[in-house]
Amino acid sequence: MQAPILAANWKMQLDIAESAALAKKIANELPRGNGTVILCPTVAAMPAVSLAVSGREDILLGAQDCHNQTKGTFTGATSPAVVAELGCTYVIVGHSERRQLFGETDEVVAAKVAAAVAQGLIPILCVGETADERKKGESETVVTRQLTTALASVPPEAPCIVAYEPLWAISHGAPHPATKAEVTPILKQITTLLEKRSATPVLYGGSVLPDNVQEFVTPDAFAGALIGGASLTVESFLGIVATARRTYAI
Ligand code: PGA
After folding, report:
1. What are all long-range contacts of 219-225, with beta carbons under 8 Å and residues at least 24 apart?
2. Is 5-249 a CATH 3.20.20.70 domain?
3. What is the pTM of this model?
């Protein structure tokens, strides 16, 4: 994992043909350079996306979620073993939409992180507070609880990425950017909590755009970004990648 790490979370926004077409454009237009690029399409699109980026070993794949068991009677769920079989290196775990819309608790997230690690996948563990929690001054407490619970049973040497995504800054349609000053104290807190683990990159997520990525992704701030809305077009995603790479090269 080389910084900057730019991960595209396409959520449920693209069908299989659209995912493959966007992946192909990215594969054709992404200049070779420093850093890691990760594409996270809807899981059924993984074979088509994998084919679209074949030959670009610098573009890696991630799933958006997985179950905490390898096999079993879990209708509709995707096993971490299948995620690995699909060619994914990464899996997003504990995204706020999973926590809020699918009721995933810290304990469920912890079990998924452990299952992903046991499978040899690198979890991209998402943490972040709601607008309400932030208003009440609880940001640090919430993020600490989410992080310590999720990583409790993960060996310190297991590779892992953490993504700090304050829910109040996630776009849900219209961008809602945070400022560097607002997120820096939480980054410090996360960095302190991760001190005893082997190098764990911390990404920022929430309305990252080509013209604000340099606020967050710098060698003395976040190691990369998890990008939703702005990863859905080749222009904005590659604009983010280019800016982040330039900032990191300085
Ligand atoms: P956004 O989404 O970039 O559209 O705010 C980020 C995320 O939810 O991971």
Report:
1. 219/3, 219/247, 219/248, 221/180, 221/184, 221/187, 222/164, 222/187, 223/3, 223/4, 223/5, 224/3, 224/4, 224/5, 224/6, 224/7, 224/35, 224/36, 225/4, 225/5, 225/6, 225/7
2. yes
3. 0.97
